[in-house]
Amino acid sequence: MSDSSRAVLCIDAGNTLVKWCTQPDWKAGFLLNGPVSSFSSQGLKGQSDNWPQFERLLRHDLLFPGLSAVLLCSVLGIGLEEKMRVLCSTLGLPLHILSVRAYQPVNSAYINPASLGRDRWAATLAVSNESRHPVNLLVSFGTATTLDALVDQAGWQHLGGYIVPGVQTMFSSLHVNTAELPRVDLDSASLSVHRVIGSQALALPQPAWPESTTRAISEGVVNMQVAMVQACAQRLEQQFGQKACIWLTGGFASLVLPRLSEARILEHAVFRGQLLDYQLHREQAA
Fold first, then answer.
1. Which of 209, 214, 211, 210 is nearest to 180 (CA)?
2. What is the pTM of this model?
């Protein structure tokens, strides 16, 4: 079988962005083919006619000839899934939608596993495939920050986790819901301090406490995110008697990483999980 006949298109439809990438050979694991592309999720929730972007995506002339399947992981509801089914059927492209299943590699302790976010499940699958540690904490920094506990005790078990407001969501909430607090974004959330001396801007050590409103907000939000991660990691260590391996993914992971030196970044965790899910699906169907 040629690479082109095993090529798949992975789509991660999140609350803020729809991200996608092509995989030249899904059986070979995660092989990112070029940069990850994206467009805004705005207008895709609920009743919407804002679907032409998906059709342009599926007809994209840079896709591999003989694309074998489209893989979709979506948190945007059943409406988008139904639209994608119709669109892929029209274009003659098989569609595989990720859902939470009782696959052998990972079991979820959720009372209703189907209610677990698909993006969380995909990232959990990715960690189970990547980690060599028995106790793991997966943290995904997106519109929401999610923290999931994953342990290997004679088989992988997803114990559950937490959902809290994400970095940008916290920034926006403080600006929108107060009278005078400024809008803070990632550019102004820099953890370094610059002061102009003469004609030069010099980087200076951070003072012990924030000395401006912008820093008070940015460092306050980042420290709250870090504290939540540390509290969950400590809880896992107390429960299982060994340190948790902390995995960070999502758009804001690099912002938090300097405060969590023991953590590691798992890039494109949802895409990785989609490919594993698709491979398991194909093996079970064979």
1. 214
2. 0.87
